[in-house]
Amino acid sequence: MKKISSILLKNKNFFLLLLIGFTLFSCKSKQKIEIDYKKNEYLKSNKLYELVTYNELKYNTLNMKLSVQIISNNFSKDEFTGIVRIKKDSIIWISFRSLNIEGARICITKDSVRFINRINDSYFTENFSSFANHFKLDIDYNILQSILTNSFFFYPCCSDDSEKIDNFKLCSDKDYYCISSLSRRETSKYFSKALTSERWNKKLEKEISDSSSNNHEEDYEFQIVKIIPEIFKIANVFLENYIDKQSLYISYDKQILVNKQIFPEVIKVELETPQLKSDITLNISNVYIDQNDQSYPFKINTKNTKIEFK
User: What domains are there in the chain, each with its CATH number?
Assistant: First the structure.
């Protein structure tokens, strides 16, 4: 149990891992499925978005158990288990456990983030937007919920999404449908092996300067989404803020059929910032959809010590 406590407190970036880490679901009754990855027709970004959103998980509440492995900076390895409960568009509740004994609890709503560490009787509670700003997270509740349910979301957050799909372009991939907030030419240039590190840094410095003077910083935050043919579920998502040198890669694997809906059974998350590089692997078991008695208990003891972030 002390290990959970040390993991939770050893660096502020771990809270980002907690928010993005609990991302998929399974069930006792599950069936592996075979997928034909052949793309058999040309589809525009608007149509792909329509098909992906149509095939998203239908639920009101979720309850799931999972095991988590986190490797930080290529050498520090941590493992623990968790219970995740979600009420759609309302609340995300997470309990961290060891030997079935709770060590910590998080409760997230659209307005707030609250945390209890039961090992050292400490807690924090903060407005969600303030929390995100403090940790420099370009996410809101809706993005977090979408990641947790393998649903489509737009990055960066906190702006009008209604017409964003019109700005997405098709990109190349031999196995998946691919759409990107960058044009095909810009995507190819960004990932070009011919563009050396020195040339890229010079180009980046100029673009940062231009974006600052023209207030177009959002042009340098982009998103690439790859979609599995036939079932139109998200295979992976890549997010990049290359001004702040931050990236996040989320991949969904081992699709299974549960209650006539398709879910990933394994998820891998790769997070990289100037301060942190982490690889997260999740294995999921025991998910229940739309339980009538699902609850989200969270009570802070007045004797607990408040955590102050600097």
Answer: 2-293 (2.50.20.10)
